[in-house]
Specification:
Blueprint lengths: L1 H5 L3 H26 L4 H26 L3
Length: 68
C-alpha cells in the first residue's frame, strides 16, 4: 500500500504485486501436482490447476492491456 501511494502509477504497483502473488500460487499448485505423493491435496490441486492457470493468464492479460 505504501509503495502504491508513492508511485506515479499506483495501479501498476498493485497489478505487479498481484501478478507476483499469482506466480507463487501457480507454482505451489504445480509443485503439489508434480511432486506430491498421491493424496487428497494432490487431487484437489490437480483439479483446480487449470482454473488457477486461467486466472493467472487473465491477470497477465489485464496487466498487459494496461501497458504495465
Amino acid at each position: 500500500d505504501l509503495r502504491s501511494r508513492l508511485a506515479d502509477d499506483p495501479d501498476a504497483v498493485y497489478l505487479a504485486a498481484l501478478e507476483a502473488q499469482e506466480d507463487r500460487i501457480l507454482e505451489a499448485f504445480r509443485t503439489a501436482v508434480e511432486q506430491s505423493p498421491p493424496s487428497p491435496v494432490r487431487d484437489v490441486a490437480r483439479e483446480k490447476l487449470p482454473q488457477v492457470k486461467r486466472m493467472h493468464d487473465r491477470l497477465r492479460e489485464i496487466r498487459s492491456r494496461a501497458g504495465n
